[in-house]
Amino acid sequence: MIAAEAARPIEHPDALDYILRGRAATLRPSSRDVYAEAISLFEHALALDPQSVEAESRLANSLAGRVLDRMTNSAAADLARAEGLVGRALAASPHSAYAHQVKGLVLRAQKRWEEAIPEYETTLASNRNGVSALTSLGWCKLFTGSIEEVIPVVEQAIRLSPRDPAMGWWRFLIATVHLLQSRTDEAIVWLEIARSAMPAVPIVRSGLASAYALKGETDRAGTELAEARKLDGVIYLQASPA
Asked: What residues contact 92, with CB distance under 8 A and at least 6 apart?
């Protein structure tokens, strides 16, 4: 670690400061404000160091992430920009595990799940303990029909990082599998935990509304759907990062 830190480029310490502040912002629960703050910080970093692969990758990750989280009013523009940024990052650093992970996120946001899988596999080949790549691979498995493989992948991520800031999304993924396999009671348990962790994420609220409706608890379903609509007027099943 000492050698790695000593070798870190220091020509742009201000850019690095913005990157670190942006990364800190992304550790907070997802919201429109959090995404806006992180994107602004990464944009400042990139303005100071236009050749920074990390700034390009982190900015692309936040842009694609807020598309998946349904927390943007400019989804098409965000995705186009994210695709360009990660393309430049990979051109400059084709062996960057993180850039491949971000490329996978962009492909997921474009609903190109089969194409995203090799990107996450490349990331995991460099870092088998990459929990974000593991859970993202789980989402791809879900949307490509390999639903039985999803929960074991997420459970592996939980074992590796039991206090991960993205735990709410991992629980939502497990809940989604239970819901799709008609295990409604189990789904509700996981969805309620995910809601507590991410109260500002509309898709969690709408998923919980669906589960309550399947149980015949229409009042609770209506409450959750109303909350989801406050956060996002367009409700449909999509998945995040994370």
From this structure: 51, 53
- Residue range 60-113, pLDDT digits in tens: 999 999 999 889 999 999 999 999 999 999 999 999 999 999 999 999 999 999
Residues with Cβ < 8 Å from 41, sequence gap 6 or more? 18, 19, 21, 22, 25
**For 156-168, b where at least 16 C-beta lie within 10 A, e where not — what string?**
bbbeebeebebbb
Q: Looking at the predicted structure, is the pLDDT value of residue 172 above 50?
A: yes
Tokens at residue 6, please?
């000593």
Q: What angle do CA 83, 108, 48 make, to 5 degrees?
A: 35
Question: Using an 8 Å Cβ cutoff, are 224 and 198 in contact?
Answer: no
Q: pLDDT per residue over 127-141, tens digit each?
A: 999 999 999 999 999
Contact criterion met (CB below 8 Å) for 154 and 138: yes
The DSSP call for residue 158 is H
Cα 22 from Cα 133, distance rounded (Å): 20
Report in angstroms the alpha-carbon separations of 66 from 101, 142, 179, 215.
16, 20, 24, 31
Domains, the chain, ordered by start: 1-128 (1.25.40.10), 129-242 (1.25.40.10)
pTM: 0.80
Tokens 């996120």 belong to residue: 105
